[in-house]
Design goal:
DNA polymerase, domain 1; Beta Polymerase, domain 3; globular; binds 2'-deoxyguanosine-5'-triphosphate; binds calcium ion; binds zinc ion
């Protein structure tokens, strides 16, 4: 589909420059519409042009000139009109359209009257005040543009899953209070559980959509309303996140949330599949396709085959409902995803947590109480080992005392929850562990984690982690790469090799659920699952609130297709403890 994508980019460029140079709106919009259609076309235009040249002209919105441009691109790799138009404006100018608040009209004014030709000159001229007095650009507008620029720079990075989710939940709670709301849900990358989020997407149906958009504009924490119309409102929060709300007919909610959940790649596959069945899928529904008709089916009053729920749409395509986390075009339409995909409710054990003995905030009993409150049948207490001086890691002597204290607590709670005396022992740079074997052998449970030397070369990292996996007393490798989302690269070991070795030795690899870590990451989990390796999802709790991070770890594990059978935290108490004891 890269041809479609590239052509779409060209048509968008043409539209942008026509817009800036003041061409008529009809012409501009026609090009924008072609770009959108190209993005959403289920079939490669190059293939259509080769096999059915006449079919190009049948596509909705594709006039003779459009078809000619497509042929020109397929022939020469470019479109002369685009190249000519680019020559008419300074090369840095089109990028200004990416700045929130800057439409083509303002860009034209800035360029023609203000001498702005790029983001850089805009920034400089905003700073030295030389843009004052431009028509339609009051002080307030200029201040808004400066803010947008600053935001754009600071937000190139994406926001962590665990930062975006609470924002989305707060918006949803606010919107659910609006009378007449029917359905409302998260869509986009957030619903798919990606580790970072570009913007938050919400989809809702309501008896009175206007009231919902008004409530969105007035929601707590909204710093700026970017756009607000009958079906879409976009706002920016005071923490710089963009939140999009789309309202749709309740009868079309399923098709809409399917569309806005994405991923784009998953949607492309679905549309291709629809097309092969003589159907047409868009955000309004799945419709019978009529190639002779140019207007979209929903505009012709055609009744959809399916639209009300996602399940209806997938079923009409002879597909299973695909959990959102798996919608990445990673084989989820070719092979049925595991029916027993791990869920938050299935997790019944926390096997990596810290108490006041090292750097946690709760006592042993406090931690155990919290695990009970979460409905868990097992908790392992794993404070830091002696090398972690800054985290108050335990000397051998303190470890022994601590293990004895854990066992006292364990006896008190024995009929309600299994409490394991464990350690999170450092994997040192050379692959050895931070306590001698005879000390580790005294413990019920061992998490081995890398905390230092996280810039090691991939080969060294692989050897180091392999050594820990081969250690007979280790149950799980904690946060195996040591990466920090958006902040630290961490180790890059050969995960497939680690997973094979771990599978052979029945050692688990951890998915650390902390939103800063999500380590293993989704793609690594998939490799582990394919190798038949055990996986352990833990919050690495240092206090009661950290247990709330579990959903992020579960989402990451689901994105890696992890079923309950390989997830030790989802096993029943007997099965889990049998495996725990098998290492002693
Ligand atoms: P993000 O926000 O960068 O983390 O990623 P997404 O996946 O949330 O992307 P976003 O917010 O741009 O759009 C949400 C979903 O809506 C996306 O996954 C697919 C769908 N979508 C939005 N715009 C388009 C489009 O122009 N073409 C297609 N095919 N799908 C789109
Ligand atoms: Ca998004
Ligand atoms: Ca969005
Ligand atoms: Zn750790």
């Amino acid at each position: 589909m890269s041809t479609n994508h590239e052509l779409a980019r060209i048509f968008t460029q043409i539209a942008d420059i026509l817009d800036i140079t003041g061409a008529n709106a009809f012409r501009v919009n026609a090009h924008r519409k072609v770009a959108r259609t190209l993005e959403e076309l289920g079939e490669d235009v190059g293939a259509i042009a080769r096999t059915r040249p006449d079919a190009l002209g049948e596509i909705e919105g594709f006039g003779k000139a459009t078809v000619e441009k497509i042929h020109e691109y397929l022939r020469s790799g470019t479109v002369a009109e685009r190249d000519e138009l680019l020559g008419q404006v300074p090369p840095g100018l089109p990028a200004l359209l990416q700045v929130p608040g800057l439409g083509p009209k303002r860009v034209r004014t800035l360029w023609k009257d203000g001498g702005v030709d790029s983001v850089e000159t805009l920034k400089a001229k905003l700073a030295d005040g030389s843009l004052g007095g431009l028509s339609g650009m009051g002080e307030k507008t200029l201040k808004g543009i400066a803010e947008s620029l600053a935001f754009l720079e600071q937000s190139r990075g994406r926001v962590r899953l665990g930062e975006a989710m609470p924002v989305a939940l707060a918006f949803m709670e606010h919107l659910r209070g609006v009378p007449g709301v029917r359905r409302i849900d998260v869509a986009g990358s957030l619903r798919r559980g990606r580790e970072t989020i570009g913007d938050i997407d919400l989809v809702a149906s309501a008896a009175d959509p206007a009231a919902l958009h008004a409530a969105m504009r007035a929601a707590p924490g909204v710093a700026k309303v970017l756009v607000s119309g009958e079906t879409k409102t976009s706002v920016r929060t005071d923490f710089g996140m963009q939140v999009d709300l789309r309202t749709v007919d309740d009868a079309q909610f399923g098709a809409a949330i399917l569309y806005f959940t994405g991923s784009k790649e998953h949607n492309v596959r679905l549309r291709e599949r629809a097309q092969r069945k003589g159907l047409r899928l868009n955000e309004y529904g799945l419709f019978p396709d009529d190639p002779a008709e140019k207007a979209a089916p929903q505009e012709r009053g055609v009744a959809p085959v399916a639209a009300r729920t996602e399940e209806d749409v997938y079923a009409a395509l002879d597909l299973w409902w695909v959990p959102p986390e798996l919608r990445e075009d990673h084989g989820e339409l070719e092979r049925r995803p595991p029916a027993d995909l791990v869920t938050v409710a299935a997790i019944k054990a926390e096997l990596h947590c810290h108490t006041t003995a090292s750097d946690g905030t709760l006592s042993i009993a406090g931690m155990v109480e919290e695990a009970l409150r979460r409905g868990f049948h097992t908790i392992a207490i794993t404070d830091h080992s002696r090398g972690q001086a800054q985290a108050n890691g335990l000397s051998i002597e303190r470890l022994r005392e601590h293990a004895a204290a854990v066992r006292d607590v364990a006896r008190t709670y024995a009929d309600r929850i299994a409490v394991l005396a464990g350690s999170e022992v450092d994997i040192l740079a050379d692959g050895t562990l931070d306590y001698p074997d005879d000390v580790l052998a005294e413990l019920d449970w061992v998490v081995a984690s890398p905390h230092s030397a996280l810039r090691a070369a991939p080969e060294a990292a692989t050897e180091r982690l392999l050594a820990a996996i081969r250690h007979p007393l280790v149950h799980v490798i904690g946060h195996p790469t040591g990466r920090i989302v958006n902040a630290r690269e961490g180790l890059s070991p050969d995960i497939a090799l680690l997973a094979r070795e771990a599978a052979a030795r029945k050692v688990a690899l951890e998915v650390n659920a902390n939103t800063m870590r999500l380590d293993l990451r989704d793609s690594h989990v998939r490799v582990a699952v394919d190798a038949g390796c055990l996986v352990s999802i833990n919050t690495d709790a240092h206090g009661a609130g950290d247990f709330d991070q579990l959903p992020y770890g579960v989402a990451t594990a689901r994105r890696g297709w992890l079923g309950r059978d390989l997830c030790v935290n989802a096993w029943d108490r007997e099965a889990l403890l049998r495996w725990v004891r098998s290492k002693r």
